[in-house]
Design goal:
single chain; 222 residues; mainly alpha; 11 helices; 55% helix; disordered N terminus
Length: 222
């Protein structure tokens, strides 16, 4: 659901209180910078006409200190997940849970709405690996395999199936997988290609937030 420039560009964006997005207040500036890139630039680097974040006075004043405006970054994501006309009246978007469910549905990944955000993110990443595998270059496949090879068993399964099984058996692999997908090695562009135009913003953002959440979990900060 892409947000159009339907009279919203002159309005201050507002963060809708959402405990599932509070993780961003603990994220590094580098990780927030990546999230800003997904929200404001398309895969060719061009500025998104629908973005409002870069025009916000408080965002401009923060400069490189993005942790000071984590709520504006979260608010921009919430708006991308919402309906444009509805946003026009309430000036806020939808919750992260709604966005995550929407992304999963777009990829035909079945999850239960009652599950925890952490588990839902894990299932999304597991499902995306199956969809991404055929699009990966030999170098990217080797990078992925080398990263998690010690966790892969059952040589009779296809490599993609073995990776998915390894993810199920060892939740820490989701962290590694999310890190690779969210990283600078071209995976994010592949992710946008399978997401489709309507989800080319929210899909990589959700994966990156999953990565951030697991980064902080690894260091016991969240």
């Amino acid at each position: 659901m892409k947000l159009s420039n339907f009279g919203l560009s002159d309005m201050e964006i507002k963060f809708r209180e959402d405990a599932d997005l509070n993780v961003l207040q603990h994220a590094s500036n580098a990780d927030l910078r990546t999230l800003v890139k997904y929200l404001t630039r398309d895969k060719d680097g061009a500025l998104r006409t629908s973005q409002q974040l870069l025009d916000q006075p408080r965002f401009k004043a923060a400069g490189e200190k993005l942790n000071q405006v984590w709520d504006l970054i979260a608010a921009e994501l919430q708006l991308y997940g919402g309906n444009t006309v509805t946003n026009l009246f309430r000036r806020t978007g939808v919750t992260y849970r709604e966005i995550l469910l929407d992304v999963c549905e777009s990829q035909s990944i079945k999850i239960k709405p009652s599950e925890s955000i952490f588990d839902m993110e894990s299932q999304l990443i597991e499902g995306l690996i199956g969809k991404l595998w055929d699009k990966l270059s030999p170098e990217q496949r080797k990078e992925f395999f080398d990263t998690i090879a010690s966790n892969i068993a059952n040589k009779d399964q296809s490599l993609a199936d073995r990776i998915i099984q390894a993810i199920k058996l060892n939740p820490t692999i989701v962290y590694t997988t999310a890190a690779l997908i969210a990283g600078p090695s071209g995976w994010a562009m592949l992710l946008q290609s399978i997401a489709g135009p309507a989800y080319e913003v929210t899909t990589p953002c959700v994966v990156h937030i999953a990565y951030i959440r697991r980064t902080l979990t690894e260091v016991n900060r969240y």
